Structures are given as C-alpha cells and as structure tokens.
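Example S7 (structure tokens).
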C-alpha cells in the first residue's frame, strides 16, 4: 500500500455530528467523511467505522441525521462526540437536542443546520461502511459560519480519531522538549492543559502544575490519562 496520507490530508472536508436512533437508544459521533452525492433526489453518503456505536445504530435503524457544526464550536464540545464512546457515555443527554422526523437527534447547540437521511444503499469498505441515502428532512438552526475540518485541525489544533477514514498514523506530532509555558497537550485529542487556568470542572485549581495533578486525572475532552500528554 502506498503512503499517500500526507497528500490526502490536503483534501477539504466539513465537520459533522452524525446521530442515529436505534429502538429509542440515541448516539452521535463526529465525522468528516460526509458529502452530497446527487441533487435530484438529494442524496448524501457518509462513511462510519465499523467499531463505532453509531455504525451499529445506523445499520439497525437505516436512518441518520447530519448536524453541521458551526465554526465557533469549541474543542471540548467536539471532543464529546469525537473522542468519547457512546458505550461509556450518554453523549446526547449532555447537549440540547430535539428528535427529528426519522427519530434521530437534531443537535441544537453549536450547529448551523441539520438534515435527516433514510439509507438506501450500504457499501462495505473494509474498516468502514458507506451509507448512502435520501435526505428526507432538512432544517436551518442558526445562521452562522460552518466549521471545516481544516479549521479544526489548524486553528483549534484538534486531532484526528483513529477511527476516522482520514487518520494519518505517520503524522506523529513532534514532542517538544521545552516546558517553559508549563502547558501540556493531549496527544490524542489536542486539549491543552494550562496551569494558569487549571481544570476547575474536575477539581484541579488554577496554579496547579501538570506534575502536581493527581495520577488518576484524565483528559476532560477524551478521557485518556496523564501519560498521553506532552509538553506543549
Ligand atoms: Fe484528550
């Protein structure tokens, strides 16, 4: 297999929360692998990793909703859907949402618009399944700028989940040796721990150095331990 991921990283994408509802169970995850494929009728395609709970729910129900993120959504909000599994966390209950026509959750915060899709075709792509379907409902939530995958990566310094179709295993981030700022960055999701701010939601007061954080503390965005952090 050729090593082309560094080139493919230049492709542009949006960033979406893809949700589904299987027998009353709700879940959602981040996806960049979504596109419109025809206009008449309006059809879209999305690729979901087979390990994801959302994959299971779309397979079972044959429906999904794509919620288009707004540009100003923060890393913490995106991380809830991008780096936490619905098998461990009830993600949907932590955000404002309503149930759409297909039963899928429509996310009402940090989103610009949303559309619901009935799946008509599935293509097995090995690690992922491509779900192609017809848009059956669409609504504008708020007029705002939309998030792009490029903005997420370059401006928010967000990372790519290992389950993403565009995960680049060769792009190991350089571990900096300078610890001048005292800031540490999560190698998995890109969250930055700033000792000047602390992590007060989780009991770490401002002024606490990274070394003094208890060993059982976990990244507030993706829940990995301290050993997954590097000096920024
Ligand atoms: Fe993290």
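Recovered sequence:
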């Amino acid at each position: 297999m050729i090593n082309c991921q560094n080139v493919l990283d230049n492709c542009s994408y949006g960033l979406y929360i893809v949700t589904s509802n299987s027998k009353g169970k709700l879940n959602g995850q981040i996806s960049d692998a979504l596109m419109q494929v025809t206009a008449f009728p309006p059809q879209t395609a999305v690729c979901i990793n087979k390990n994801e709970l959302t994959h299971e729910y779309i397979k079972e129900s044959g429906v999904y909703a794509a919620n288009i993120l707004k540009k100003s959504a923060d890393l913490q909000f995106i991380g809830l859907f991008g780096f936490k599994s619905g098998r461990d966390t009830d993600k949907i209950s932590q955000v404002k949402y309503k149930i759409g026509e297909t039963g899928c959750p429509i996310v009402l915060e940090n989103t610009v618009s949303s559309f619901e899709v009935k799946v008509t075709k599935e293509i097995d792509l090995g690690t992922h399944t491509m779900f192609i379907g017809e848009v059956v409902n669409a609504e504008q939530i708020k007029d705002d700028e939309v998030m792009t995958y490029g903005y997420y990566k370059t401006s928010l310094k967000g990372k790519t989940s290992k389950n993403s179709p565009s995960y680049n295993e060769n792009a190991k981030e350089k571990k900096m040796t300078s610890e001048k700022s005292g800031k540490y960055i999560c190698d998995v999701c890109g969250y930055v721990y700033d000792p000047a701010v602390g992590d007060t939601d989780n009991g770490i007061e401002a002024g606490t150095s990274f070394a003094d954080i208890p060993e059982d503390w976990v990244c507030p965005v993706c829940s990995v331990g301290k050993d997954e952090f590097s000096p920024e």
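Notes on this example. The CA atoms of residues 63 and 147 lie 23 Å apart.
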